[in-house]
């Protein structure tokens, strides 16, 4: 059973009533189809209205939903013949970042993403989707491999941020991310990045210097988590709703500000309600972008990627 978020409780109550009516109808033999149909329409109408005007803090809950599809779910639904490539060639295989060669519509691509777990055991294996420096170095190795063999690069991002532990800092967390930013900007193959859930801080940006940056409808992308922002500005993490509003973390806000290039629609209720449909929408967006990018000469691709990031954002002067 899908976990119910706080703001979804009224829908859950209507669904509970529908289930009770269905059971009553089965037990008694009474025809309650009309009443059930009325409640089902009521639930659907309410859900559509609710999801058409979600607050940033509510989208935050959907982006973090435990049952939201993970990187490997999307790989299996989007690609064929995925072969995972391991290790940073310096002594570690960070499981928070997974990547390898696959086929998309019959063509080879390098697909790399940040993986979260579905269980406590998996989350420990994937470090809750928080990469360490070795993960970014592994990604960079795969970027260079793709560049050498002229394969487009696709990155799927879902992270609360790079791992902030002492060991990560000691082994060069900031330098590893900075190296990725520099090197991604110079790659001569098309790069497409998609924020599928959480896209937080430099941990997300370390895989997102791309020709096309896209977001799922209920994902978020931000320089700092709303809780972290609230703790700094108001010394109170409980004010995260105000921070989420001020940070402009949603796909609609970021599209308007020119930070992302496209919003990818999700099924009603979020990606966890229909992973296959979400994957289909992602694949269509990738295929369309690749057709455009593969026509561009290498030097123009690099030039436009650089210009894109230099021109990012909007400012008000007073």
Known CATH architecture of the largest domain = Alpha-Beta Complex
Radius of gyration: 21 Å
Binned strand content: 15-25%
Overall geometric form: globular
Terminal Cα separation, in Å? 52 Å
Write the layout of secondary structure elements.
Elements: H1 9-28, H2 33-52, H3 56-63, H4 71-78, E1 80-84, E2 97-104, E3 107-114, H5 120-125, H6 133-148, E4 153-159, H7 166-170, H8 173-184, E5 191-200, H9 201-205, E6 212-216, E7 220-222, H10 226-233, H11 240-247, H12 251-257, E8 262-264, H13 275-293, H14 298-310
Parallel strand pairs: 3-4, 4-5, 5-6, 5-7, 6-8
Antiparallel strand pairs: 1-2, 2-3
Helix pairs in contact: 1-2, 4-13, 6-8, 10-11
Question: How would you describe what is shown here?
Answer:
The chain is of the alpha/beta class and 318 residues long. The protein folds into two domains: 6-53; 64-310, 2-enoyl-CoA Hydratase, Chain A, domain 1, CATH 3.90.226. Helices cover 49% and strands 15% of the residues. The protein contains 14 helices and eight strands. Strands 1, 2, 3, 4, 5, 6, 7 and 8 form an eight-stranded mixed β-sheet that branches. Strand 2 and strand 3 (107-114) form a beta hairpin. Helix 4 (71-78) packs across helix 13 (275-293) and helix 10 crosses helix 11 (240-247). It is globular. It starts with 8 loop residues before the first helix and ends in an 8-residue tail after the last helix. The model has no long low-confidence stretch (mean pLDDT 93).
């Amino acid at each position: 059973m899908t976990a119910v978020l706080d703001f979804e409780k009224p829908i859950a109550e209507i669904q509970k009533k529908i289930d009770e009516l269905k059971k009553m109808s089965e037990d008694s033999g009474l025809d309650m189809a009309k009443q059930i149909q009325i409640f089902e329409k009521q639930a659907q109408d309410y859900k559509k209205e609710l999801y058409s005007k979600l607050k940033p803090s509510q989208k935050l809950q959907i982006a973090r939903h435990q049952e939201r599809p993970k990187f490997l779910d999307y790989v299996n639904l989007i690609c064929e013949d995925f072969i995972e490539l391991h290790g940073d060639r310096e002594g570690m295989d960070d499981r928070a970042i997974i990547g390898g060669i696959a086929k998309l519509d019959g063509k080879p691509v390098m697909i790399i993403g940040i993986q979260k777990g579905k269980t406590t055991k998996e989350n420990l294996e994937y470090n809750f989707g928080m990469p360490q420096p070795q993960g970014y170095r592994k990604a960079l190795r795969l970027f260079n491999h793709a560049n050498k063999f002229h394969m487009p690069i696709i990155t799927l991002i879902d992270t609360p941020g790079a791992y902030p532990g002492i060991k990560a800092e000691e082994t060069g967390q900031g330098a590893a991310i900075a190296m990725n930013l520099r090197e991604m900007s110079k790659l001569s193959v098309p790069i497409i990045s998609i924020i599928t859930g959480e896209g937080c801080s430099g941990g997300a940006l370390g895989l997102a210097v791309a020709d096309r940056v896209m977001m799922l409808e209920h994902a978020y992308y931000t320089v700092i988590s709303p809780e972290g922002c609230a703790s700094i500005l108001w010394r109170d993490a409980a004010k995260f709703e105000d921070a989420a509003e001020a940070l402009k973390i949603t796909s609609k806000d970021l599209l308007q500000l020119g930070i992302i290039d496209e919003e990818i629609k999700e099924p009603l209720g979020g990606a966890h309600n229909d992973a296959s449909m979400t994957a289909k929408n992602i694949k269509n967006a990738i295929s369309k972008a690749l057709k455009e990018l593969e026509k561009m000469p290498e030097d123009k691709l690099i030039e436009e990627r650089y210009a894109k990031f230099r021109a990012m954002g909007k400012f008000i002067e007073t």
